[in-house]
């Protein structure tokens, strides 16, 4: 009952607002009527543009070409060639970047591999030499036939004393014969 008492006052307030809004040109949504007409016109323009874009898309996809003139077909062909050229340029750019990244990765992995080989070879050498006694050194020198110098096959440079690479073997190197005593001295230097 108490709420019914305020109902006529609320209705009068709403009526006053609607009459003022109508006088100012405001629609029920709170948007001025002239702006609403402008938005409706803009919506129609956008709908037309969307339709033209859809027709253009269908033509670029090879659909609905029956109604096209020779000039229109030539224009479509030129647009497709330009698009294809742009795609190829972008593809080549991406491929070159990928190749550069792979080359850098290959270089880094090669360096890491070389370090690992070196550390592994050194570890093998240390482990092998830790248990070598004088008799074993003589045996090694005998097995090498007194060959304590290593000659690189292509450069013909000699490495001495025996290095880790020489002891674990490398196809790039061959042994040059020297005395068994020299081999023993070189191994003791290590």
UniProtKB/TrEMBL annotation:
Q: List where this protein forms a coiled coil.
A: 70-119
Ranges of residues in domain K-box:
36-131
Which InterPro entries does the UniProt entry name for this protein?
Answer: TF_Kbox (IPR002487)
The organism's superkingdom is given as Eukaryota
| Entry annotated with the keyword Coiled coil | yes
Recorded hits in Pfam families, A to Z, give: K-box
**Molecular function per GO:** DNA-binding transcription factor activity
Keyword annotations? Coiled coil
Listed under GO cellular component are: nucleus
Its recorded name reads: Agamous-like MADS-box protein AGL19
| Record lineage | Eukaryota, Viridiplantae, Streptophyta, Embryophyta, Tracheophyta
Please name the gene that encodes this protein. Answer: AGL19_1
């Amino acid at each position: 009952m108490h709420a019914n008492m305020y109902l006529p006052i609320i209705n009068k307030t709403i009526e006053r607002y609607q009459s003022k809004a109508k006088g100012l040109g405001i629609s029920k949504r709170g948007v001025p009527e002239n702006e609403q007409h402008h938005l409706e016109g803009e919506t129609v323009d956008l709908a037309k543009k969307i339709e033209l874009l859809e027709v253009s898309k269908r033509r670029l996809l090879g659909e609905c070409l029956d109604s096209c003139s020779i000039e229109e077909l030539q224009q479509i062909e030129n647009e497709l060639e330009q698009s294809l050229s742009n795609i190829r340029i972008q593809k080549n750019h991406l491929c070159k970047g990928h190749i550069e990244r792979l080359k850098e990765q290959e270089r880094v992995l090669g360096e890491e591999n070389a370090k690992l080989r070196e550390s592994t070879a050194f570890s093998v050498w240390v482990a092998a030499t830790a248990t070598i006694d004088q008799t074993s050194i003589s045996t090694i020198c005998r097995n090498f036939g007194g060959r304590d110098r290593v000659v690189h096959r292509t450069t013909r440079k000699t490495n001495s004393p025996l290095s880790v690479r020489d002891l674990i073997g490398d196809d790039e190197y061959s042994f040059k014969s020297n005395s068994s005593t020299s081999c023993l001295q070189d191994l003791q230097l290590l």
